[in-house]
Amino acid sequence: MHTFAERFQYLRKLTGLKQAEFAGRINLSQGRLSDIEKGKNKPSADTLVSVAQQFSTDVNWLLMGTGTAPQSIEIMNENLSLGEASGRLDSELLTEHIAEKELISKFKMLNKDNRKHIEKFMCYLIFEQQDYSPTTQGFSSQENC
Predict the structure, then answer these.
(1) What is the superkingdom listed in this entry's lineage (predicted)?
(2) Domains: count for the chain
(3) Which residues of the chain have pLDDT under 50?
């Protein structure tokens, strides 16, 4: 998949949704979605946020093809419309969610040894940030880090 349009269409097909269903979940018309999949138009930033939020997708992969292509999609509660989800989650929370997904995606690309290094460093930062000591706060380096 070399183009944005190909990746966008791949994502929709991976969800198993028809164009009209997929478009409805991200607040687009079917025609606009069709134009995006054909490469005639690009989605807005709001649409990209909706796709990332609704389908737990890495925006970097979708936009640039970097990282790992999704093999399966976790669709949010199908009874929850995009409007309801937007009402519950403000833009800061959506941005944070996207950043967390991207961080997890990058972490998964690391080998086992590098993951251990990152985990230890994160524990160190948490303890330092909160002025915790593993012994004074009841934390065991074996249990949590």
Answers:
(1) Bacteria
(2) 2
(3) 76-81, 84-86, 88, 136-143
